[in-house]
Design a protein that fits this description.
heterodimer; A: Nuclear Transport Factor 2, Chain: A; 5-stranded mixed β-sheet; 10 strands; 36% strand; B: alpha/beta; Alpha-Beta Plaits; Aminopeptidase; 12 strands; 18% strand
Chain lengths: 250, 388
């Protein structure tokens, strides 16, 4: 269970409780300098220390957590322990996140996983007749799982772009999917997601366009109905956030 | 409605005759004139098909709702076709109500289904009252569920819990001794209009379905509508917002019905509100960071309850006051309860922590209900032993 250590001298509370930092992590892009990814999920077992530099400046959070594979069917055990520093600049989106993990999955295995996902996507029959993933009862057909995984990844970029100290997002449902044929073997698809924002409880529809090839950076373009202005973000100040190379709004 | 049917199948497996109600449907019939109304009324009153008016005929330009048992579906459809009557089948929101009725019928000495009011769209608000004692106004516990309609695990857990209470009475010492000292009131669907809407139109609908004059947006957040720092922080005055507090406190008839009932009763000791998701167990306040006078005791009880809950499947809950655990929220049910003398006021945010969120798969219903039950019992045991 979570335990919170607050450093002396002054007690400080994180305005949105202990959920804030892990949510930012959970929705942040994968922190590897290689361009492959695997989806990990932040475990609830974490400890959070809060350092408030200056109320006007923002909030720095140190989070220690362990990770497990996103897909619960693939039980390969914990991937490792991670330590992260998350910096929320007051009300600004795109928190800076510095993460180090012990014992990440090795590179070869990661590449294999990437190619497996790629092949699964390429093998999907078009046009995809998708209504919702998961369906209203929470069910995801195993054949649709790769679509969900990739959509989740793309959505996590979008969510990170919008995450602030006070705004935290979850992926509620994928409501449409369309895969495009490409000349260069990339995976190219458009989808619509419903994001759930915690503090306002709003459901935000976003259209996302995603292009991917294993080993290459993910290209994400998006338009959310409730668009946050892409103001100066926390990440650009610190200079050490891993920012996807191509990220833009429609 | 696989979700509901799944629960129903499991809940009902120990009781015979369940199959028949899980096929029941409500037909909404567009009647155009008095002649059509009287033909329909004749058929219903004849009792041949065991029909019932769900919504009685009033005037020609309003549709009539008829409850049709599954065995009569074909015959009734034929009748409608022969009369040239237009109809639509509305959703089976009655399954929970029927199950409540069955529980009361199966355990008449323990359970009674009580109507406490109606929703904006005139659906009944039913609670199950569990009581072993004579006499009005015994110390009581209020279990609230489904106030936010998209949080389906809440209604599901509630109806499972209802069945659990009656099944375990006189078998489980804990619930037996709890019921010896206190009554339990369970409201599984605190927002029936919203619930139907999530099944027919929009799975992620949260609020009530009341009209907002001057706005095209519908509904108010029933958990911002209570008279506890109403319209304070953490609520919105915009009718289009998911946390719109409504025009005034208790403006939502669904909320008012509960408030009136509890105030009239006057002897509630505990109020528990079931929501999803996030796996949190919280106590007042949501409307302010000020510490509740009983915060220490509530925190202790909540931690014990979370521990008991975790003992079933390892599901971890965080514990704390609403405002600093999740976010500020004014006009909430448990803040109202607490400020009105109901000391043991708790909110559960049930499974999960965001993987499926509101769309929790059906195979997690029973595990969630089972673990939550241990948490609820822990709280109720403490209440039992600490009357005030």
């Amino acid at each position: 269970s979570a335990s919170y250590r607050v450093p002396a001298p002054a007690p400080v509370f994180l305005p949105w409780g202990p959920m804030a930092a892990p949510q930012a992590l959970a929705s942040s892009p994968p922190h590897t300098k290689t361009n492959s990814f695997f989806i990990f999920r932040v475990q609830l077992k974490y400890s959070v220390s809060v350092f408030q530099i200056n109320p006007k400046e923002g909030c720095k959070v140190h989070v220690v957590f362990s990770t497990e594979r996103y897909n619960p069917e693939e039980r390969e055990g914990r991937l490792g322990k991670c330590s992260a520093r998350v910096f929320f600049k007051n009300q600004k989106p795109r928190p800076t996140i510095n993460v180090t993990c012990t014992r990440l999955i090795e590179k070869k295995k990661r590449q294999q996983e990437d190619y497996l996902l790629y092949k699964q996507m390429k093998q999907l029959k078009n046009p995809l007749e998708i209504v919702s993933i998961p369906d209203n009862h929470g069910h995801i057909d195993p054949s649709l799982r790769p679509i969900w995984d990739l959509a989740f990844l793309g959505s996590s970029y979008v969510m990170w772009e919008m995450t602030t100290q006070v705004s935290h997002y979850y992926l509620a449902q994928l409501t449409s999917v369309r895969q495009w044929k490409t000349n260069d073997d990339t995976i190219d698809f458009d989808y619509t997601v419903l994001l759930h924002e915690l503090s306002t409880q709003e459901i935000i529809p976003c259209r996302i366009h995603l292009v991917w090839y294993p080993g290459k950076p993910l290209k994400v373009k998006y338009h959310c109905q409730e668009l946050q202005t892409p103001e100066e973000a926390s990440g650009t100040e610190e200079g050490s956030a891993v920012v996807p190379t191509e990220l833009s709004n429609f | 409605m696989r979700w509901i049917l799944f629960i129903g199948a499991l809940i009902g497996s120990s009781i015979c005759g369940q199959e028949k109600f899980f096929g029941d449907q409500v037909f909404r019939i567009n009647v155009r004139n008095g002649d059509e109304i009287s033909k329909l009324s004749q058929l219903v009153n004849s009792n041949n098909l065991k029909l019932n008016f769900w919504k009685s005929p009033s005037s020609f330009n309003r549709p009539v709702d008829v409850l049709v048992p599954s065995v009569s579906l074909q015959a009734f459809k034929s009748f409608l076709r022969s009369q040239g009557l237009e109809y639509a089948v509305t959703i089976k929101d009655l399954q929970i109500y029927h199950e409540m009725d069955n529980i009361a019928a199966d355990f008449p000495d323990l359970a009674r289904r009580v109507k406490i009011g109606h929703s904006f769209e005139n659906r009944p608000m039913y609670v199950l009252k569990f009581s072993t004692g004579k006499g009005a106004r015994r110390p009581a516990v209020w279990l609230n569920a489904g106030i936010h309609s998209r949080e389906w695990i809440s209604q599901a857990t509630a109806i499972w819990t209802a069945r659990k209470i009656v099944s375990d009475y006189q078998r489980d010492p804990a619930i037996t001794s709890i019921l010896e000292k206190m009554d339990i009131f369970l409201l599984p669907v605190a927002n029936p209009d919203g619930y139907v809407y999530t099944q027919t139109q929009n799975r992620l609908w949260r609020k009530t379905r009341s009209r907002n004059p001057g706005s095209s947006c519908i509904g108010a957040d029933p958990n911002r509508n209570w008279n506890a720092s109403f319209a304070g922080k953490g609520a919105s005055d915009n009718p289009c917002s998911e946390v719109y507090h409504g025009p005034h406190a208790n403006s939502e008839v669904e909320v008012k019905s509960v408030v009136d009932f509890i105030q009239k009763h006057g002897n509630f000791k505990c109020f528990i509100d079931l929501h999803s998701y996030s796996q949190l167990l919280m106590y007042p306040y949501g409307y302010s960071v000020k510490k509740a006078p009983d915060a220490e005791e509530l925190d202790k009880v909540a931690r014990l309850a979370a521990k008991a809950l975790a003992s079933v499947s390892g599901t971890e809950y965080q514990v704390g006051p609403t405002c600093t655990t999740v976010y500020p929220a004014s006009g909430s049910s448990i803040d109202w309860a607490y400020d009105n003398g109901i000391k043991f006021a708790f909110t559960f945010e049930l499974r999960d922590t965001g993987t499926y969120g509101f769309l929790l798969p059906a195979n997690q219903i029973i595990p969630t209900a089972e673990e939550t039950w241990l948490g609820l019992k822990t709280i109720m045991e403490h209440v039992r032993d600490n009357f005030y």
